[in-house]
Queue: 2 jobs
Job 1
Amino acid sequence: MVLSKTWQNFFRETGEMSRFTWRFFAHGFKPRYEFAEFFRQCFLIGYKSLPLIGLTGFILGLVLTLQLRPSLIDYGVESQLPAMVGIAIVREIGPVITALIFAGKIGSSIGAELGSMKVTEQIDAMEVSGTNPFKYLVVTRVLAATLMLPVLVILSDGISLYGSYLGVNIRGITSFNLFFKQVFDALSFSDLSPAFIKTFFFGFAVGMIGCYKGYNSQKGTEGVGRSANSAVVVSSLLIFIIDLVVVQVTDILGLN
Amino acid sequence: MQAEQETIPFIQRVTAQQPVISIHHLYKSFGTNAVLIDLNFLLNKGENVAVLGKSGSGKSVMIKCIIGLLRPDSGEINVLGKEVTTLNQEELDRIRVRVGFLFQSNALYDSMTVRENLEFPLRRHWIQITPAESNEKVMDALTNVGLAHTVDMMPAELSGGMRKRIALARTLILNPDIMLYDEPTTGLDPITGREISQLMAELGEKYNTSSVIISHDMNCIRTTADRVVMLIDGRCYTEGKYEELKKSNDPNVKQFFE
């Protein structure tokens, strides 16, 4: 059986990506550890993404509340609005939307940065100066993305819920304490834990794909643009695939 | 700091007239394209050898094999007494500290200032270096290339010639024994090209390096090289002093000097 060129490329790309990921686990946790670069990346990837993540989270909570409210009034369950919005944001919308925005901002930036370093021989320069560029550039960025996204998701969820609280108060009156009591009463451990755990996988996917695409960039400046673009496309797709798998796993474990 | 380098037992001291690089029967191909075919090459201590050849003749592949960026298909590459093809990563890194590589594109780190670019190799290899020592080394290296005033600038703010000088300073900051230059004057105007060639010759003497210079620029080769090796189709075609080759009647040699 002869596979078409598209399938051949797909399997080759998947194989190379798997090998790249294996290299991360095989070499990433051996000394020498690049702590300074890791903390610098945490600052750039985490702290610098906060304004964008916060703003989108706020709008998300506000809009979701305003759009849900009329439907809930029709059914006479307006009082359930904080609980519904809380569950929707914490379980699904918060992590996925934050991860997608994170993929757009961080995935493209890592892809473009490493891509331009690759085509201008900066990665080779690092290697010939006796520094392991994989550890210095890839391991630090992947770890920073993996650890920073869960933090950003928690902050984004909080800001979204605050946006939702303001949304509720545009048309009605609910106290801050009552709103958040209703939200937290509706949430259980099985809502929080899978949603939190999957964000580590989202962050890992965004970091790894961004680094893989940038590190293997080819064909000069055109390749840099292509790396940045495909880093966003592939990592966004992976976020949905991981989400689908997590839903199945939590379902099997009886956490849904 | 110099003493620290000299006590590294892994790399033997090489005496004058001993080869610092010797290549025997080197083969390298990419797919079906054979780039290097039975290449032999020798660089003695203190010697500056230019490697001349058309684009695609295998010059850059040769120096990338020397530094371990490319793995040859077969053959021996001995650098400072060590067989590069058999070294593990850690041993290769230790050899690389003693071999400077000046890239055609300069390869300065875009996201770092000139100071950070020069400090990068220092801090990686001399972990215990104090900020004052590091600053002194950086300023010395920049003064040697006449660009001390650019210390806090970003690479994007510098001209092509300045970037080349900074790249040269960064490469020399670890006092390497061997310098590999990949087309050092390509993309520069003739005046800046001459300045860079002159600087290479001066710094080579000052830092007592042996060097391999890949170039098409005959002015650069005349200024910097003691000996010229010509590659054609991945093989060493001929070699000699610049003036000897210039007088050659061989059409393959002559075309470079016309």
Job 2
Amino acid sequence: MRAPLPLLLGLLVFATAPAVADPVVVVSARGDVQRLDREDVVNIFLGRYRRFPDGSTARPVDQPEFSPTKAAFYRKLVNKDLNEINAYWARLVFSGKTPPPARVASAEEVATFILATPGGIGYLARDQVDARFRIVLELPR
Amino acid sequence: MRLDISSSRRPGADRARLIRVAASRHLLAGLLTCAAGIASASEPGTPAPSVSLHGFGTLGLTRAHGGAEYIRDLSQPDGAGSSWSAKVDSLLGLQANVELSPRTEAVAQVVSRHRYDGGYRPELTWAFLRHDFSPDFSLRAGRLGTEFYMLGDSRLVGYANTSIRPPPDFYGSLVFSYIDGIDAAMTWPAGSGLLRGKLFAGKSPEQAPFAAGIAWNLRGSPLIGGHLEYLDGNWQIRFSHASVRFDKETPTDALLRALGDPLGGVPYLSLVPEMAMADTWARFNALGLVYDQGPLRIEWMLNRIDQEGPAYADSRAGYLLASYRLGEITPYLGISRSYTPTSRLPSSPIPGLDAITASLVGQSRIDQRTVTLGGRWDFHKNLALKAQIDRVEGKPSSLFLVKHPAADWDGNLTVYSLALDFVF
């Protein structure tokens, strides 16, 4: 029996889907922040203005450098690839301005940072989100 | 006509240099000590400061056809002629960031590049302490890069910029790269966007090339300024102002001596006192607009430089640079223009002196436009390869941003450039 071609293609897309997992922006579920709009998240992650709408300080964390979630996040947030994001931060770092989001070595450490840091905010692949986190912004495809 | 640079290597000059180097080190050490004090006072029991090292650089090759040497900015005493030269864009910067607390950071940066005296001796370009009093207010003190224009404080970081070099028609007249002083930056949410402001004040520790082998000492010149900008979505608009009061005269007599001493040793300024630069102000005003939407980026800027005295020509400049990313390749296209508005020169009854005055002021006159076409290839993380062609069309009297023009130079240059930019 032969599977129809569209089904095979569909399976192929499904099989590669985790590589471009849908990133969501999260904070600790115990925090006060309920919702953010896209502009708030741009300001926090690009270091323009690191306050939540209630005035408290936001401390963002990035996924590790080669994480597909990181590439998908910046692609969906500002339609930039990681080379452009690196060039953006090179300008700010070498002119002594705002530092980039915290850097950690693994996805587990991202989760730990978000939960343990006051004002911690990060992004996760949707399937990594559990009851410890609250989704504050979804990034539509 | 060229003076031997080694003539400046007098014992006195060496001692002065040692004192300056020592002073820079003391400045840095003092800042770090002070920073450590703040950190331990404000956050007892914090772990040892975390240190990170970063760097940036460019390996560049440039050749310019047409009969004059092409420079990137006025800090360069000579540039690229008709054979490939690495001196226009090649540079290396190293930076240490010391995080003393989550809100306090000490930063030091040294850069080696083709500098005012023709050498590559590294300069301490940044050495400051920053404290973020809140997410919307931070203070920095120490040695700070100047930000007369938008993007001006990162103009050496090739990797951060689209084109090989920020348009020289616009940024090339800046001889001030850094100050010893303070700045304060503030942010306010306003409407759907952010309003940001910065104020700075300090003194210049720099020198600028004046003529072959002769430097103009800018040290001690006070600089003050600031900017106000509005960011909203993909738009950023900024108005900037800076004022400089020159502390010391230009070395006009040294230049005239090198040119055969036409005044027979009589100080030039005793004959034409209106040409004095010391204690006169230069004012820099600029308007910048950046539109950045996904793969598309457009920069549009205008500036005007007004000199209080007649010795240095005023200028007006503007540029438009557009780029569009297609995967790893980003083609870009730019146009820029810079000119000197008409001005009246001081005149003197002494025969021949007006010609000298006109030729002195003429060194700072500009009237040219440039069309730039290039491409950036982000072929690897933190590495970008760029190729660029600039066509400069100007008048033969547009001498401000070229060096060693041939007698029959027609004011035009075609410039070919390659650059490998990196950060680490």
